[in-house]
Design a protein that fits this description.
Elements: H1 2-13, H2 16-19, H3 43-55, H4 66-79, E1 98-103, E2 106-111, E3 118-119, H5 124-137, H6 167-172, E4 180-181, E5 184-185, H7 211-225, H8 229-238, E6 248-259, E7 262-267, E8 276-279, H9 281-292, E9 296-297, E10 300-301, H10 305-311, E11 326-327, E12 342-346, E13 350-355, E14 360-365, H11 371-380
Antiparallel strand pairs: 1-2, 1-14, 3-8, 4-5, 6-7, 6-8, 9-10, 11-12, 12-13, 13-14
């Protein structure tokens, strides 16, 4: 009797949406649409958000050929004083601003070609974090504070500077890894310090956004798995969530290693020099929904809640950064949206925002406007 009363009380205080079985789309291209009013959103306010995205295209859309896009990228990197700005991986021409707004699992707004596969720049870092999560969940990494050199013995963690580096530090961009990978020295992307005479800080004591070190993480995960990371992602995540087969994950022309006698490409965690994760807005929305649902997809736990919790826990040295995810800590990214929101972000306007409070996933690609303004406009359309 007491158990029945407790259950009745729980149902009474739970929101209606929480009482219902969560919706998950079937395999691509299936995905149910709902009118905004059906999921508690104001259509006029939502249209303001869409109009903002469309009115603010990325400057990347001005290029017409791949050669022009590469030249533009190399000029940009050279302007940042990178010692070696050469693009060494696949590049592309972007098509249009495109995106999806998803509430309670349903698509409530879409714009542009949401099936167009875009190079997503540093949004790829969050995908690498996802791959690391699968590695952790499968028991191939026992603890994120373990030293990487205890798992990976390819010489990359032998030096005094690198020997103490942990998985957590690589994931939070505090590793201070020193070296050259795929012909790119770590100094190439030391955003905050490009003076080679300046001594490096000890691992875990300095936050530094750095693609070379992220690529070192990708190679380390490849060494642990002994199989290509795109295969790992496909088997453990993309197929189970019903993603389309159109996404791609590239490395560089020279990022090949021998695994069990076979040449395997190590993927890149960004696209400064080409490569990275290429994906449609619809498939990116599925990944966002997986995180929104705490790693669960229908009746299967794809990613552990423990990993998601760690991924969105603020780093001590950078409160708005987690495990290669950007966090809305203190509402730094979107001042009128919940501080619990977090995002994948890539240069050139590639974003996937997760808002657990409002049950929202917001995907936008090739938008030149401010992410926070766009997210705030979407959140302002929520009525219940």
């Amino acid at each position: 009797m007491l158990a029945a009363l407790a259950c009745a009380w729980l149902l009474a205080v739970m929101p209606v949406a929480a009482q219902q079985r969560p919706y998950y789309p079937d395999a691509a291209p299936a995905w149910e649409r709902r009118r905004p009013a059906e999921v508690g959103m104001d259509s006029v306010a939502l249209q303001r958000a869409v109009a903002y995205a469309l009115a603010n295209p990325s400057g990347l859309l001005g290029t017409k050929t791949v050669e022009e896009a590469i030249a533009r990228q190399e000029r940009s990197l050279a302007a940042m004083n990178e010692p070696d700005p050469r693009v060494i991986g696949p590049f592309m021409v972007h098509k249009n601003v495109n995106g999806l707004i998803i509430r309670r699992g349903y698509i409530v707004a879409e714009f542009g070609d949401t099936r167009f596969v875009d190079l997503t720049a540093s949004l790829s870092k969050s995908i690498l974090s996802l791959a690391a999560g699968v590695t952790f969940d499968q028991g191939l990494i026992h603890h994120v504070d373990d030293r990487v050199g205890d798992y990976v013995r390819d010489g990359g963690f032998d030096s005094p500077q690198n020997a103490a580096i942990t998985w957590r530090q690589l994931l939070q961009q505090t590793s201070g890894w020193e070296g050259t990978l795929w012909g790119k020295p770590d100094l190439n992307d030391r955003r905050t310090r490009r003076d080679p005479t300046t001594p490096l800080q000890a691992p875990g004591t300095f936050w530094d956004y750095n693609d070379v070190r992220v690529n070192r993480l990708a190679l380390s995960l490849l060494r642990v798995w002994q199989r290509p990371l795109p295969q790992v992602l496909d088997d453990y995540v993309m197929k189970p969530i019903g993603a389309s087969p159109t996404w791609e994950w590239h490395g560089y022309d020279n990022s090949w290693v021998t695994i069990r006698g076979v040449q395997v490409q190590s993927v890149s965690g960004g696209a400064h020099w080409g490569g990275g994760f290429w994906v449609s807005a619809e498939d990116l929305g599925r990944i966002g929904l997986l995180y929104l649902r705490n790693g669960r997809w229908k009746d299967r736990q794809i990613l552990s809640p423990e990993w998601i919790r760690m991924s969105v826990t603020p780093a001590e040295l950078r409160p708005d950064y987690g495990f290669l995810w950007w966090l809305n800590t203190d509402q730094r990214m979107a001042r009128n949206s919940p501080a619990s929101g977090y995002a994948m972000r890539g240069g050139g306007g590639f974003y996937c925002w997760i808002d657990p409070v409002n049950d929202l996933v917001i995907v936008v690609k090739a938008m030149g406007g401010n992410l926070g303004e766009f997210v705030d406009l979407v959140v302002a359309s929520v009525r219940r």
